[in-house]
Amino acid sequence: MTKGNEKKTDYGFETKSVHAGNMENNVGALVTPIYQTSTFSYPSTNAAAEDFEDLTTGFAYSRITNPSTEVVERKVAELEHGARGVAFASGMGAISATLFTLLASGDHLVCAKSLYSGTDEVITDILGKFGVESTYTDLSDPNNLEEAIKDNTKLVYFETPANPTMDLIDIEEVVKIAKKHDLLVVIDNTFSSPYITNPIDFGVDVVIHSATKYLGGHGDIIAGIVVCKELEMANEIRITGLMHLGAVMAPNTAFLLERGIKTLGVRMERHSSNALALAQWLEKQDWVETVRYPFLESDPCYEIAKKQMRLGGGMISLEVKNGVKGGENFMNNLKLATIAVSLGDTETLVEHPASMTHSMIPEESRVKAGITNGQIRISVGLETVEDLIADMDQAAQNIYD
Ligand code: PLP
Predict the structure, then answer these.
(1) pTM
(2) Bridge partner residues of 186 (DSSP)
């Protein structure tokens, strides 16, 4: 922690969420002020010259560093056990800046077959256009990584749990193989949040978050954060990926994000207990084909979950009976849960890819990509869980209409 003269470093997660990264300010404000400034003044040209020698420290211009964003960068870095964070305007800003910094034309990366669609497009369409090759493989069997590695492979990229299937990837096993070949490992930890999984503890080099989701937690910001195990890499991403590509987090957003992070631990506890209770109930319903939730004992990934997740998190994947029609009927009869994309908010959000985000993709290719007809993704919110169960129970009564 950086506050005052504090030397103790072994504080618990919630203490760090509240205090880590906090900076002194000259009026003693308890909460970090919103430093709504584009530039910073210097007492002399010499002082400016000193600052410009290393742009990753001090404050010269808010496209590089700003006190409001620095607080969240340091906070999330401590929560993720990394050296330093870099804040971005969005999760996609963080992902593209990281990949553009760490890869060059002629390089190859291996990624998990199931990735957030925006990430997939950056890797395939944009990086591909600049001569970066990619191979998608099923990393739920880490041995597939070995087969996908080529002479020019630089990096492995994945998410766990995967979206929307909720399949898990064994982080430790993937890192073991990657490090044998000197590859960088980059993980999108958005679904778990640092309260549930700390990938750097398993040897991952870079952890990315869409801070729009659990870190912010209230559905009122778009934000991204990258945390690196090594300070040098964070500085490289700051200069190439942030300062030059320019997807900078605004100070106002940093203020809301800092406020959200302070309650991350207590929110994740309730997201997880609500989701576990809902998943256990769903599993017993005759209108449900399958439920995927990492902390269900029946889940095929339960053993991996226990190894790398502190709790099951707030995301459930569900397959209802009666295919696309069953999914639509269920969704349209919900009265409390909200039909919306995104996740990690206080409200329960439900998404039916086959009739919403993926409705324009032909059924055959959609199903091949793991997006089945009755599949519904639930981001379980912080409402009273009995109310959520009652809502889903009444919505399911019309599933066969
Ligand atoms: N990563 C994951 C796993 C996501 O679900 C999303 C958005 O839904 C993103 C990244 C992109 O984040 P943002 O919307 O903050 O740009």
Answers:
(1) 0.96
(2) 157, 206
